[in-house]
Amino acid sequence: xxxxxxxxxxxxxxxxxxxxxxxxxxxxxxxxxxxxxxxxxxxxxxxxxxxxxxxxxxxxxxxxxxxxxxxxxxxxxxxxxxxxxxxxxxxxxxxxxxxxxxxxxxxxxxxxxxxxxxxxxxxxxxxxxxxxxxxxxxxxxxxxxxxxxxxxxxxxxxxxxxxxxxxxxxxxxxxxxxxxxxxxxxxxxxxxxxxxxxxxxxxxxxxxxxxxxxxxxxxxxxxxxxxxxxxxxxxxxxxxxxxxxxxxxxxxxxxxxxxxxxxxxxxxxxxxxxxxxxxxxxxxxxxxxxxxxxxxxxxxxxxxxxxxxxxxxxxxxxxxxxxxxxxxxxxxxxxxxxxxxxxxxxxxxxxxxxxxxxxxxxxxxxxxxxxxxxxxxxxxxxxxxxxxxxxxxxxxxxxxxxxxxxxxxxxxxxxxxxxxxxxxxxxxxxxxxxxxxxxxxxxxxxxxxxxxxxxxxxxxxxxxxxxxxxxxxxxxxxxxxxxxxxxxxxx
Length: 491
Known about the structure:
Blueprint: E1 7-8, E2 40-41, E3 48-53, H1 57-66, E4 69-73, E5 77-82, H2 84-88, E6 96-98, E7 104-107, E8 111-115, E9 119-120, E10 136-143, H3 149-156, E11 161-166, E12 170-176, H4 178-188, E13 192-197, H5 200-203, H6 206-214, E14 220-228, H7 233-243, E15 249-253, E16 256-264, H8 268-272, E17 277-282, E18 287-288, H9 291-297, E19 301-302, E20 305-306, H10 311-317, E21 329-334, E22 361-366, H11 382-391, E23 418-423, H12 435-444, E24 447-452, E25 454-455, H13 464-472
Parallel strand pairs: 1-24, 21-23, 21-24, 22-23
Antiparallel strand pairs: 2-13, 3-5, 3-6, 4-5, 7-8, 8-9, 10-12, 10-13, 11-12, 14-16, 14-17, 15-16, 18-25, 19-20
């Protein structure tokens, strides 16, 4: 049975193999870069990897005749290692592409592990390095090329669990004596290119490494810690909270448990060294960030300007009506809408703009923990205006419903759709919602699209909140949420 999914305005596109689940996409990094021999890797010959389309028989044959090394074949392409001289023979061919990135593992902070002919890992301080052990540990493995399912099966047969994918063709894995097991698998196979530690330096965000070194040891730092889920996770969570302040939020997503709290700067390195810690990142508080626009996005433009009023008629001409097509809702995750009831005061949120008709607000609730002066009402206007931008209906004429050119104020992009209000700013303060619970309840109440007009100043980084939404657009009611549904992960 396929699980429900949710289309959302916050999403990333990731391609992942079977058995992985979802890629975290967090590009983990550290401070400084110097060359070090990697802990384990078969020596790769000089040259670069290239992909050759399966249909390009001529290029395939030229590479074979030149003595290039065929590394692996796939249904749609083949993977080769070629020397500069062999590459020169391909310049006139269209069916190949160089992939030097297949010999790297890029991490956050702009750092790179080199895993090809030149092998290097970043410089790091001694207390952020990891050594192989016999107990449970995380370790890195990179495959020779795009990963085949049978390669992952070989790992799971050795009781190694996939924690997360990392570019390119690499994984963080978990298991007892993981380093030793991967070494043995590499010796027995040709598909493993490199293995090495998943150092605490990769787990601890670079800015937090600076904080650990520069700030007073007792200064509190807001962080989110991601634990890989094991039967010891609850013990780890309890242990963590003895080091810092009470948790602001604990959330289960994918195979991680995320906890947000304030930790002393002097404890950051210690926590990053715990075996089941996958990621420690700075927590940054999220913030809240007319018909003419509708005509523009619908393509009704001439000379750079909207052709004129008539967006509602244009929708009707395309077959959109109030009945039958919009029996779902858009979840407005924001501050509140109108008077915080399902019978709002504004006509624009009713069927055909008729206050005597049916309201199109299907639910309104607070998600997370209320703050002082909490309200579900749209007093600040942010959630309210977004609800109308999405779903407002207005076909009335004259002032105050039209501008001087006859364009309607308050006519939304989808004036027939329903909306639901998930309040996470009440109205000005963030409520620390559990995103999995929020989206599970929204989906249960008919939401199929999520509007998120808010965010955190993280410089565009893909963080644990991004990861949560990345997962929830694929599985809106996951295991551990308020309303789990049988399917991909829930049985």
